[in-house]
Design goal:
This protein is of the alpha/beta class. It contains ten helices and seven strands. A seven-stranded mixed sheet has the order 3-2-1-4-5-7-6, sandwiched between helices. Helix 5 links the parallel strand 2 and strand 3.
Length: 271
Amino acid sequence: MWATAVGVARVRALETARENALFRDPLARAFAAAGGLWPSASPLPDDEAARRRRAAVAFSIVIRTKFLDDLLRQASASGVRQVVLLGAGMDSRAFRMDWPEGTRLFEVDTAAPLEFKASVLRQERAVARCERITVAVDLREDWPGALAAAGHDPAVPTAWIAEGLLIYLPEDAVEVLLSQISTRSATGSRMGLTLGSRGVIERFGAGAVPGSPASMWLSEMPEDPVAWLAGHGWEAQSHSLRACAAAYGRPISTPPRREELPGGLISAIRR
């Protein structure tokens, strides 16, 4: 599934090339090229509906990237100096963002994407702007133990990011993961989640090409994500993609096809 992360890098590379980009990710193009997704684009799908679905997914990646960048800046400003990226993929925040002195950033993912990423980083001679620690472990295994062995301190606040991850996990695995995060989060910890909004699997997954990212989607957000997170000890805010896009100067021009509930992008603080 890590090839999906390379696809995300291609979306970020295209955004970076825009004059009015919402973020700059200089390494994204190198990840996409090494994964065979640059400069040639994937062949266009055969029908207009598929093209619209692909464009919608790419747009959501751009908005969520900006949303989580802002969340991490706010966490740093509040004094948080530990960051954990779960299912880190081709995330390059350790290299492209400005971090306060003393920040430790843990990238948790399986060995294959981390090794691919390391080869590209060596090729690009990339230098991290904080202490970057990779943790090669499957999230279905004892990742908390591996994270602790890598130096994570649960007694001090952590900023947790699960970007483009939870939608690929069954609901019971999402619950387990959140419980594991919560028990390792000191007061003042922050969390940024991207969740599949209600109905997204029906709209995008049902007709997805086998093996495509959408074909592997398994879970959507709860009816009330704020209450769900409160049950785990987090004070959360739920944000719609449409509202965030408008705030970033990228309003969605088409009207919603149905009532749009808040959700999809979640920020939370451990109280």
